[in-house]
Amino acid sequence: MEEQLKIDFEKSFKNSNFSTKKKNLKKEFLNKFIKEGLPNKSLENWKFSDISQIIKKEIGDLSFYNDISTPNKIEPSIYLDGLEQNSIVFINGRAEKIDFQFEEKNKVEILDDFELNNNCSNINSLINLNNAFVDKSFKIVIKENYSFKKPLVIYHYTNKKIKSKNINLRIDFILEKNSSLKLIDVLNDLSEKNFINTFYSFKLNQDAILKNYKIDFKNNGNIKYSFTNIEQEKNSLSEIFIVSSGSDFNKNEINCNLNGKYSSAFVNGLFSLNKKKHHEIKTIINHLNENTKSYQLIKSVLENDARAVYQGKIFVNSEAQKTDGYQLSKAILLDETTEFNAKPELEIYADDVKCSHGSASGSLNENSIFYLMSRGLNYKEAKELLINGFLLDVIEKITDSEIKNLIKNMIGFKE
Amino acid sequence: MKIQSDNNSTEKEIEKLKKYKYGFSTDIENVKAPKGLSKEVIKFISNIKNEPKWLLDWRLKAYERLKVLKEPDWQKPKYPKIDYQDLYYYSAPKSFKEKPKSLDDLDPKLLETYKKLGIPLQEQKRLNNIAVDAVFDSVSVATTFKDKLTEKGIIFCSISEAIQKYPELVKKYLGTVIPITDHFFATLNSAVFTDGSFVYVPKGVRCPMELSTYFRINASDTGQFERTLIIADKGSYVSYLEGCTAPMRDENQLHAANVELVALDDAEIKYSTVQNWYPGDKDGKGGIYNFVTKRGLCKGKNSKISWTQVETGSAITWKYPSCILKGDNSIGEFYSIAITNNHQKADTGTKMIHLGKNTKSKIISKGISAGFSDMTYRGLVDISSKANNSRNYTQCDSLLMGNKCGAHTIPYIKNKNSDSNLAHEATTSKISEEQLHYCQQRGLNSEEAVGLIVNGFCKEVLQQLPMEFAVEAQKLVGISLEGSVG
């Protein structure tokens, strides 16, 4: 793989106009990645999902160079219906269209080439890979006291032209004081057997509000990894919601640092998996200051050889008194072939805190099904009703009603 | 023995002993194997114990494997590298070269030691209804109540004696639960284990009394590697207690024991531990490294294994008493209190591996950390795809005192069976001001109040202990937390 990496790396330099400084930095990242290789299960974080094996088995030889010189045509069908939106469209890793039609021009700044730096605490080799190969890294700055009028939707679209490719994407968001952003990520793939590696970094200044909805719903045969790093200052708030369902493999990793007092983080998500899919959500919430709060709820419904993993960690350092941390994961296993692994972890160094976690997994309650059937539903309807009720619990945590309804419609909930 | 060298520090000594009353050491001449770990040392141990050839071969096989094994390093409490060549692997009181026939032949100094420990071997005969096997450094020195047990057909003796007298039984079960191919410390133990207890309860017998072993490390630079094997045959019941203490020394000492339990059809084993090894002084100097492998196998149908532990001692505690629930309808239980104070560190928990149908397990873990200590609960619940209709309930609560200490919970939950139900709960909190205020208002001082609240917090686990131990454990909980409030 090393040879391939070096050849592809040279190719990516040829068609670019990186500064020498950036080139050197990228080389450093490449060397780091070559040294470490793809993560495997000997690493604690990858214990339940050995991505190096998965890539080897599903893709085989991966090509790291992705030619983005030719533009692609945007199919109008990829847009979300019935939602007034700003949008960024990525097709096969190339930014095709950036459209902020609903926002004031001078309040949002978009840069597509900025200095790479790495000061987030949770580096793994995939982030090095991302930094080494990412072509354009975007930076979006939202100015002080500005709230987005309409949500920003980022479409991650791939078509059938690409196969066995590694696509890297990086976007940094800076939310200045008292600003707010609603961000929806829509994953939409027609391709298969690609490895898509996304890295988001958010910086939330005082009183900023971020709502990020990551939707992976459409069935596809790609392997995905997404890392989200969030830095939060005083009184800021972040809300992440993950719908993890479509891809063959998807690992969402959230690292959230609550640096400022009264900052809070909410991470909720659902797995709805079948047909040998293997998904993971891994969260690390670092409570680093007083009076911070975090809340996590993950629900999963598994069927047909599916496998879900939830690794959640709440870290409280000794200064973070009066922390309130909560974590709950629940899973329904619908048949014998499924597997649910959880590792809800607490690491606490302060005494005046309230932290708890819970985890439960099991089958559908036969008594409930019996009850519904005795009221005239057939078995299938009864099962569906119970599963919908189970998942609705977490969907109701979405605070934006417009997006909540959108997600409900997408999953097919009947009101 | 650095502590004893300074005459002026006698007063300090006494002061120290008040805190850890088992901190004395006894001057008894010892026979030691040459320092270090080698084939020769293993042969020496095997030879001095007059072991059959199969056991020596078994030990050597473990030693061969040890050469390729690496010491694990994923645990939370890190410790300086142990030089395995700088340890004595065998140490026995000299007077024991000829094994004493009865208690009257025992070295009076030894008897005195046990008296100080609160285990007067002779008086015990009359007073309590507990059979005691005392292990001093590496060898078992005395076992009480032998006759009464023999009447029922129960074998309770040191494992060296069992190797001589009941080789078939030992050969059949030794290493079936913890094989020599296990992790580093377990394999180390297999290679160099010196003594330990052996219990066999025959079919349908309910052991009429509590069996108990008292472990004591006396010599310095010695690792203690004992091996305990308990077999409960069909339909039998046994309750076994284990207590440990060690003298205060400035250097760290290693204790790597293996405990294997085998429960056949309808049998039940209850294993309780009150572990009070020397925890090191206020600044974290010295203390025992307690790296123990304990594993129980519910081999037969309807069998049950229950672990109860009160962990108050040791500089580092690193152990996971586990249950392999192989037989259908078998039950595994784990009740634990772990208290760390000053610079103590603990990484403890359990593994429940469900293999059979209708298996049930329950985990109650209470962790209390104070001072500069660090406490980790690490546990695994693994439900295999064939373990239909299995149940697990896990509850782990932590209590923090002060903001210099840490409490961590790392549960691993694996479920491969849709028919099974798993529930896990964990909380971390501190003693509420209101509760403290209430108790103090009623005339308790702050330490008494904390003791009372902590005992309440631990009640669920303390209740599981046999009566004789429960009182001692309750006192220990109080002592361990002395000086942590205020």
Describe, in plain words, how this protein is organized in 3D.
The complex is a heterodimer of chains A (415) and B (486). Chain A is built from seven helices and 19 strands. With 415 residues, chain A is an alpha/beta fold. Chain A has a ten-stranded mixed sheet with strand order 2-1-5-7-9-11-13-15-17-19, with helices on one face. Chain A has a nine-stranded mixed sheet with strand order 3-4-6-8-10-12-14-16-18, covered by helices on one side. Chain A starts with a helix and ends with a helix. By secondary structure, chain B is of the alpha/beta class. Chain B has a domain of 300 residues. In chain B, 26% of the residues lie in helices and 33% in strands. In chain B, strands 5, 6, 8, 10, 11, 13, 14, 16, 17, 19, 20, 22 and 24 form a 13-stranded mixed sheet that branches. In chain B, a hairpin with a 2-residue loop joins strand 3 and strand 4. The radius of gyration of chain B is 22 Å and the shape is globular. At the A-B interface, strand 18 and strand 19 of A face strand 24 and strand 25 of B. Strand 18 of chain A pairs antiparallel with strand 24 of chain B, so a sheet runs across the interface.
Write the layout of secondary structure elements.
The complex is a heterodimer of chains A (415) and B (486).
Chain A: H1 2-14, H2 20-36, H3 51-58, E1 86-91, E2 94-99, E3 108-111, H4 125-133, E4 137-142, E5 152-158, E6 166-175, E7 180-189, E8 192-204, E9 209-216, E10 221-232, E11 237-244, E12 249-258, E13 264-273, E14 278-287, E15 293-302, E16 307-316, E17 324-333, E18 339-348, E19 354-362, H5 366-374, H6 379-395, H7 401-411
Parallel strand pairs in A: 1-5, 4-6, 5-7, 6-8, 7-9, 8-10, 9-11, 10-12, 11-13, 12-14, 13-15, 14-16, 15-17, 16-18, 17-19
Antiparallel strand pairs in A: 1-2, 3-4
Helix pairs in contact in A: 2-4, 5-6
Chain B: H1 2-5, H2 10-19, E1 30-32, H3 39-48, H4 53-68, E2 91-93, H5 108-116, H6 121-126, E3 130-136, E4 139-143, H7 146-152, E5 155-158, H8 159-165, H9 167-173, H10 184-192, E6 197-201, E7 210-216, E8 227-232, E9 237-245, E10 252-255, E11 258-263, E12 268-275, E13 287-290, E14 293-298, E15 304-311, E16 316-319, E17 322-325, E18 331-340, E19 345-348, E20 351-354, E21 360-369, E22 374-383, E23 391-400, E24 406-415, E25 421-430, H11 433-441, H12 446-462, H13 467-480
Parallel strand pairs in B: 3-7, 6-8, 7-9, 8-11, 9-12, 10-13, 11-14, 12-15, 13-16, 14-17, 15-18, 16-19, 17-20, 18-21, 19-22, 20-22, 21-23, 22-24, 23-25
Antiparallel strand pairs in B: 1-2, 3-4, 5-6
Helix pairs in contact in B: 3-4, 4-10, 8-9, 11-12, 12-13
